[in-house]
Design brief:
Helices cover 77% and strands 0% of the residues. By secondary structure, it is mostly helical. Bound molecules: fe (ii) ion (2 copies).
Length: 215
């Protein structure tokens, strides 16, 4: 299901759930019942899969192995398109403002990290044009070092807090606003590609077979 479809669906689903008096967080799991927060958590899944590819590329470069730079560049482009240009803007415009009073310090740090992350993605994209492997490894490692705890903090603290803070009606309103803003940000772009893109990049680096990722 495309990102827009997921968020469009959650608007209808959220309305239906609230309409029959069942809390939004009682929605069943699965693609057919994505809530506003579940859509954001799915984005983090895309982000984590790309960060694993960053890890793998950095590890190989540190071992002087060959790494296809076009794959690393495509990873950074996916983060820009899916996470920085859409997901983070949704957080900054619609999620964080609802927590300024109760979690002001935390959302301040998270906002600053979004800015730092965009700078690191700029660096990765610029380094595709030819620079030392050391610089590229530094940027990849810096990004993942910051963003894993960033996404984990959002999943475990920020998203539960916003759901609790706004209540069922506010959660429905948040879902409607996330859906509308997603449509505005995506425009005519097809976001259905995100998962397929990540799977293709995993194949390109030879780490697509989950069964092989065991000790
Ligand atoms: Fe974030
Ligand atoms: Fe996030």
């Amino acid at each position: 299901m495309a990102m827009e479809d997921r968020r469009s669906f959650l608007v209808a689903t959220g309305a239906a759930i609230v309409g029959v008096g069942i809390s939004a967080d009682a929605a069943p799991r699965g693609r057919a019942a994505v809530t506003p927060i579940e859509a954001l958590v799915c984005d983090h899944g895309i982000l984590r899969r790309v960060m694993y590819l960053y890890d793998e590329a950095a590890r190989r470069m540190e071992g002087n192995e060959d790494v296809a730079m076009d794959v690393v560049g495509a990873c950074a482009a996916t983060i820009r398109r899916v996470i920085e240009d859409v997901h983070e803007r949704l957080e900054e415009e619609l999620v964080f403002p609802r927590l300024e009073r109760t979690h002001g310090e935390l959302v301040g740090v998270l906002r600053r990290q979004h800015g730092v992350g965009r700078g690191l993605t700029d660096q990765v994209l610029a380094l595709m044009k030819g620079a030392s492997a050391d610089h590229l490894v530094f940027s990849l490692r810096a990004f993942t070092r910051m963003y894993r705890p960033h996404a984990d903090r959002e999943d475990t603290v920020v998203f539960p807090a916003v759901r609790d803070a706004v209540g069922p009606a506010g959660y429905r309103e948040l879902g409607e606003q996330l859906g509308e803003r997603t449509r505005q940000l995506l425009g005519s772009r097809d976001e259905d590609r995100a998962l397929e893109d990540v799977a293709r990049l995993e194949r390109a680096l030879g780490v697509d077979d989950l069964a092989k990722l065991m000790v």
